[in-house]
Design a protein that fits this description.
The protein is α+β, with helices and mostly antiparallel strands and 242 residues long. The chain has one domain: Rossmann fold. The protein contains six helices and 13 strands. A hairpin with a 4-residue loop joins strand 5 and strand 6. The two termini are 16 Å apart. This is Proteasome assembly chaperone 2.
């Protein structure tokens, strides 16, 4: 399963839009929870569709056995932890093989060693991800630890929203894939995230100039949007929605 987190420049959300619009996906349901501010709109992927989009939509790609969750609504602060706990439980109950969270992090908060080389990083939980070796083969770098004022070292994700919180709550192998970015027009960042993800997981053909033009025209989001992208991989059985 794949999902985006509230993050710098909405990179995760834009990347998920590109995945949903490029893969042969079908909408299979919505998520409802008190943490989600209710919204409704037209189908952003097909102008001729009578389908609606909501605060949290689930899409399925049968060919790749992948479920994609796109959340467009901000989470109510007092309900956020409850939502993430229920989401992680649902993911576990559905017996997904693994999960990937797409996110981004503030480029201005990098330390010197992070300013050169690849700008992609990953953070994984305690469960062994089945594709971790492949991720390292394509150049995946684990997020470096940072030392706080008390001398405690942790892997941090400034600007990455609640991606790390979901990571700690997840009961299956989960990886947060992130990129250091600046705020602004982040469409190219989203394209590079999808390209890196595809180099690792090989979900779709290389993004072409035609696809890029389509993407830029269709999915330009303001910086105030919120997102949470979850990619659930190798689904089994039926779904029980929250």
């Amino acid at each position: 399963m794949k999902e985006p987190s509230v993050c710098v420049g909405n990179v995760g959300q834009l990347a998920m839009d590109l995945l949903i619009s490029t893969l042969e996906t079908v909408k299979i349901g919505i998520l409802h929870h008190p943490a989600l501010l209710p919204i409704v709109g037209y189908d952003p992927y097909n102008n001729k569709s009578t389908e609606i989009s909501t605060a949290a939509d689930l899409h399925l790609c049968k060919d790749k056995k992948v479920v994609l969750l796109q959340i467009r609504s901000p989470l109510i602060k007092v309900e956020k932890e409850s939502f993430l706990k229920e989401l992680s439980s649902w993911v576990s109950d559905c017996a997904f093989r693994s999960a990937i969270v797409l996110s981004s992090s503030h480029a201005q908060l990098r330390f010197d060693a992070q300013m050169i080389g690849s700008q992609f990083r990953y953070i994984c939980n305690e469960f062994q991800h089945p594709d971790i070796d492949r991720l390292r083969e394509v150049g995946g770098i684990e997020m470096e630890e940072r030392e706080d004022d008390c001398g405690v070292k942790k892997r941090r994700l400034p600007g990455g929203g609640f991606a790390l919180k979901f990571l700690t709550l997840s009961k299956i192998p989960t990886i947060v894939l992130t990129k250091f970015v600046d705020e602004g027009d982040n469409t190219n960042d989203a394209l590079s995230v999808v390209s890196f993800l595809n180099n690792w997981a090989q979900y779709l053909a290389r993004v072409t100039k035609v696809e890029k033009t389509f993407f830029l025209e269709k999915f330009i989001w303001g910086t105030s949007a919120f997102s949470f992208v979850l990619i659930l991989i190798n689904y089994f059985g039926f779904f029980r929605f929250i």
